[in-house]
Each structure stands twice: as structure tokens, then as C-alpha cells.
Specification:
By secondary structure, the protein is mostly helical. The chain is built from four helices and no strands. 12% of the residues are buried.
Length: 100
């Protein structure tokens, strides 16, 4: 349970990083395509495990696919691109924290 909580705490950072990677032309197009397909799948009424039958498992399935697609996006992106975006995001967060 501790690992899940840790992932959920870092999820906003991963989402911001993923958004930047989706817009970066150096990231492979197929990785971006997988994320887009997963998002469309999550929004579509078609599910492998329907939410109305097993609400928690159905939602969990969508979330699992989404998290795996984000992981795949980050892992398949060039390391220097990921590092630069992560560094830029950390600097933005730090400047936001110092102005508050």
C-alpha cells in the first residue's frame, strides 16, 4: 500500500512530464500514439472489464493502462530529453515555491 501511495503522490509530476514529452518532437511518434490510444480507450464506452459490472476493477483497468502508457512514453523517450524536461519542471516548481 505504501508503494501505491508513493506513486499517487508523484503522479502530478509524471503527468506534467508526460505532457511535455507528448509535445516534444524528439520523442518517438509511436510512444505518443500509444498514450493517445489509451486515453481514447479510457474515454470510450468499450471496456475489457465493464465499470457497471465491476466498478473498481473497470476503473482500475483504465488507470493501469494509462500508467503503463506513461511509463512506456518516458522509457522510450531519449534520456537527455526526459532529463531536460524533468530539470525544467523542477526549476519551475522551485521558482513557484520561492514566490509564494
Amino acid at each position: 500500500m505504501r508503494g501505491l501511495f508513493s506513486i499517487l503522490l508523484r503522479l502530478p509530476k509524471y503527468l506534467r512530464l508526460s505532457w511535455r514529452l507528448m509535445k516534444d518532437p524528439q520523442v518517438p511518434w509511436f510512444s505518443k500514439l500509444i498514450v493517445m490510444i489509451v486515453v481514447l480507450y479510457a474515454l470510450s464506452p468499450v471496456d475489457l472489464i465493464p465499470e457497471y459490472l465491476l466498478p473498481h476493477l473497470g476503473f482500475g483497468e483504465d488507470l493501469l493502462f494509462f500508467l503503463l502508457s506513461i511509463q512506456q512514453l518516458i522509457r522510450s523517450s531519449p534520456k537527455e530529453v526526459v532529463t531536460q524536461h524533468a530539470k525544467d519542471l523542477a526549476e519551475q516548481q522551485q521558482s513557484r515555491d520561492t514566490t509564494v
